[in-house]
Every structure is written in C-alpha cells, then in structure tokens.
Amino acid sequence: MYDEVNNKVDVVGIGVSTIDMFTVVDAFPKTREVQKASNMVLDGGGPVATAMVTLAKLGAKTIMIDNLGDDWSGLLIAEDFKKYNVQTHCLEIFSEQTSSIANILVEKDTGIRAILYHPGSVPEIKDITKYTHIIQGAKVLHLNGRHLEASLAAIDIAKHAGVKISFDGGANRYNQNMRQIVPKVDICILAKEFAFAYTGETKIDRAGETLIKSGLELVGITDGINGSWVFDNDIGVFHQPAFKMDNVVDTTGCGDSYHGGFLYGILHNMSLKKCAEFASAVAALNTQALGGRKGLPSLKTVEMFLRNH
C-alpha cells in the first residue's frame, strides 16, 4: 500500500515516457542505402521522464505519472525508472496496448540526431484527481503539455496547494494548446524554437522580454551549444554559456537533463545564475555517452566538473 506520509516527493512529472533505440551512423542514410551501424543501444526517453531520472540521479525524490502498455517497451520503461529510483506507482498499465517507441539515428562525428517516433496505442490520462495527494505533497510539478487535460487539472491542484509549476517547451512541441498552460506556470523554460513560435519574435532577448511582460516570473530560453538565457522580474536577464566538451557522443536528452538540473537548483535554493550553471553542467556531462540517460551525472560528478571549470 502507498504510504502518503513517508513517500512525499520533491518533483512530480506528467508526460509521455518512451523507449529509445539509438543507432550510430557515419551519415544519415540516403534512399535504398544499406549502412553498417557502429553502435546500437536501448535507453529510456521522453522529455519529462528524463528530467525525473536526472533529478533522481542527483538525489531528489521524483515520481512519474503516465500511462503505459503491457508490451515489452512498457515493461522496459517501468524497469528503467526503477533502476534510477524514480517512483513508479503512478504508472498505469493498460493490457493489450503498446507504449511509445523512438528510433534515433545519431551521426558519429557530430552527435546530430534524426528521430523516428511511434506514439503507441495507450490512451491519454483521464483522471488526474486520483493523484491529488501526491501532487499536493510535492514541491514542484513538471510537465510539457502531453496528457493535456490531465496536465491542466494537475496545474489547478498544484496552484491550490502552493506547489511550483515547471514547464518544458520543447523545440518541436509548440501548438495552440500550449497557450492554455504557459500563462499558469512559475518556471517556464523553452527551447528557442518554441519561444519564437509562442511570441512571434525572432530574437531571444525580445522573446524573453515578451514572455516576462505577459506576466511570467521566470523564463529560460535554451539554444543548444549557444547556451541559455534566463529572464527574471527581479534580476533582469543573463546568459549562461554552454560548457564546451571535447568529445560529444550524443546530444539526446541534453534539454531534458538541463530541466532536471535547473529544478535541482531550485529545490536547493540556489541563485538563478547557479541554477543555470548547474543545469548547463548536467547537460554537458550527458553528452558523453550514447543515449538520453546513460551519461547522466551524479551530484558528486557535477560538483567536481564545476570545480574544474
């Protein structure tokens, strides 16, 4: 039986979890081309899911709310969460349904990715209220707009309980439905492409200013190797450069792990500049292995990295 008192978590995640097949190639294949892959691995994925794993690897208590099929991929997704100590009792398993799978091609020399995605057949989360006590007991609710109706209901639960709401606006995730979520969040970290689509601006500083003027308190805009920008009502704006890594194996999960690192900083009352620096270090270290999670660092590794940089 779930012990509500002793199992309160730091962060609750709502999103879609996947199993990712990573295939390393010399170059993306052309029509009818047969090419030998230099490496292939399976890893867990999904933006919110990987943020939860990142936080757990750093030592935070996290839980994932999602629906999975009872197929092989669903079983692997659940087992991967358990491996990283992400709580799984809010994963609902549907019989004779399939879970989400992604096939990710990674260029060997650049780490650039191409992604093929199959969403599976599991339904959206219908009733988030059965998890009300879990959301109310958390410090942060993290989501990206998947399971839209459930996410909107969870936001209302979190707001009434004084739980911070964190949003991940991914590069290819913008649609009009996101306008129902963004104005309600406390921590809004967006990929540059999402920020431009949402605001209609074409420059990062203008996009951030527009978002702050809309009423948001904290906005982050990420731009890969160009780093991230953080906008805040009190301290204004600052730029956090990305850490340069000599050997980038794979950039999958960098944005997701940035979110996890940033939220870890928030949980531990770091300054916003320290949050961004810490998040950038986590993301940089995650490029050192194939897969969105296999390179995720421990807290000790991040602290050592920052001492040397």
From TrEMBL:
SUPFAM superfamilies the record matches: Ribokinase-like (SSF53613)
Domain of life, per lineage: Bacteria
UniProt-recorded Gene Ontology molecular function terms: kinase activity
Carbohydrate kinase PfkB domain ranges (all copies): 11-297
Alphabetical list of Pfam families matching this protein: PfkB
Transferase among keywords: yes
Keywords: Kinase, Transferase
Name of the protein in its database record: Sugar or nucleoside kinase, ribokinase family
Organism from which the protein derives: Pelosinus propionicus DSM 13327
Lineage: Bacteria, Bacillati, Bacillota, Negativicutes, Selenomonadales
